[in-house]
Design a protein that fits this description.
8-stranded mixed β-sheet, 14 strands, Dihydrodipicolinate Reductase, domain 2, about 25% strand, homodimer, about 325 residues, alpha/beta, Rossmann fold, 9 helices, 2 domains
């Protein structure tokens, strides 16, 4: 197949890693980049040897050569940018979180359906071979029925009230940036809505949550998830079944996974990635587009909506009024 | 100092490990054992070269040579055996959990006080050098303010309805056998009553809990704890602070601990134990007794009461009536 021609909207940090990984992709090539500043677009294009650099997003959307758009702007612009690209007839890969509210998610899915264009959330973790191997172990019934899912993702993020991470107007907070991976991991391996959620959450002085501990109860399992801007957590994923468990170090960017029977690792998978790992996402999405798929089987739109709904429930969780803990006399 | 002379009540599995470790203890010697069966007492005494073997507990309590009693009977006999030993004027080390209800705990503390005898719960984890090293790192402010405590302890235990582990009449269930360690770990490092507890619990057909996920909320921290008879968990303890975290593999029998700054282990402690690890408990308690202490500074009676209270709260947790999760339209 011919390589799919990609354009990037928003040349920020994540776009740099994404652009870097085209060197290792087989089915996609980087053809254009757009920034609201022509100068930033030029610099980015020069760094990654990109043929076209646009000083406005609309110019990129209008370029008939561009088949796929990667939206890498801040969260609060995802809806608008994805919508505009879809309406211009492009396939869209939008960085996670797809949007910042389930309402926006439903609307965007509607637009993708109406325009007949491909849309996928850049939940790149789902595309990583180490995660797929973990899914395969589960599908092969290697660990038995899943009883527990545990996922933590926390890094200390220096407090800058005006920066994106701590700014409520830019959908800052630990859940949208880091916690979303833990929710996506729980969904990927359990595929159920929690019956109950309990949340312990702390806020930074700007009002965004910067430390969240979650307990999700399912019919026959529980998920313990945690995310933080305040501290480094042990950022592993555990999928624990009746007969064994799977351990995925740094699961959000997973490079390897371990299958355990009791104390013993019985299988260890390690991937042969050459880039940051985005090449897997680029290739899977490029193949979808080249073969006229309308959505990704790896990150279906229904999954993105579930993740948005769970995220929203966590963020809007209010503890029930409780009586004080009773004396145990 | 002369070695303190010990007697064991109840020659079960745990008593075997305990007896084995006297070979590595400096301050205690094993002098007597008692079982309700003279034959079992004789066999046990022969195996560990113990001078006295009694076919009743009372004979052991009556032996004036015995200074310290180790109570290793099933949980539901702990109160009675410890009480009788205290009333016979002996120092008592009772296997964990000390008792099976906070009421019993208060009563036993009262009896120890009234009789003026030493009483300590065999929370042997607290005596292990790797745990003490972790406490030292916290005391030295190496990890900053504690934000999260995570502890899991789960092993698949074959279902035998009449056996001790699954029998409600013998205080079976995962919390008394395994979960107690996770609660004790949270208390040891945070020393606070939870403001709120949320519990997800499953029961075996005998009615005892066999899989429990706990979320404890504190003023400025959270604890995520888990225990199970249904599956092997990743049985680690994490104490996570603002500036680093401590990892303790298989913390209940901890042999080593790691201090992390971000991804990097900056210190690694490994102990030089020769036995199962009970020698540390035997020696600490023997020294207390030889120096006429009335309780252990490592496991104070107030700590045992706290653990009992938290255990009781977990076991009697009833979820507040909740409204169904709301649609997020």
């Amino acid at each position: 197949m011919n390589k799919v021609k990609w354009g990037i909207v928003g040349p920020g940090i994540i776009a740099h890693e994404f652009a870097h990984d085209f060197a290792f992709a087989r089915y996609g090539e980087l053809y254009a980049v757009a920034s609201r500043s022509q100068e930033r677009a030029n610099q980015f294009a020069q760094k990654y040897d990109i043929p076209k650099a646009y000083g406005s997003y609309q110019e990129l959307y209008n370029d008939p050569e561009v088949e796929a758009i990667y939206v890498a702007t801040p969260h609060t612009f995802h809806f608008e940018n994805s919508r505009d690209a879809l309406q211009a007839g492009k396939a869209v890969l939008c960085e996670k979180p797809l949007v910042v509210h389930p309402k926006e998610c439903r609307k965007l899915i509607e637009i993708a359906t109406q325009t007949g264009n491909y849309l996928v959330e850049g939940m790149w973790t789902y595309f990583l071979p180490a995660i797929k191997r973990a899914q395969q172990w589960v599908a092969e019934d290697r660990i038995g029925k899943i009883l527990h899912i545990k996922a933590d993702f926390g890094y200390p993020i220096p407090f800058k009230p005006e920066g994106r991470m701590y700014n409520p107007d830019l959908a800052g907070g630990a859940m949208h940036d880091l916690g979303v991976y833990t929710i996506a991991a729980a969904w990927l391996f359990y595929q159920q809505d929690p019956l109950q959620m309990t949340i312990v959450s702390r806020n930074a002085s700007t009002g965004v949550e910067d430390d969240v501990t979650m307990l999700f109860e399912y019919e026959n399992a529980a998920a313990s998830l945690c995310t933080s801007f305040r501290c480094k957590l042990h950022n592993y994923l555990y999928i624990i079944g009746e007969r064994g468990y799977i351990e995925v170090p740094d699961f959000w960017r997973a490079r390897e996974s371990f299958l355990y029977e009791m104390e013993t690792p019985v299988e260890h998978y390690i991937d042969d990635r050459k880039g940051f790992g985005f090449e897997h996402e680029i290739d899977a999405v490029s193949r979808d587009i080249a073969t006229d798929q309308l959505e990704s089987s790896v990150v279906p739109l229904a999954t993105s909506l579930k993740v948005q709904e769970h995220l929203h429930r966590v963020l809007s969780y209010k503890r029930q009024p409780t009586t004080p803990l009773q004396q145990t006399n």
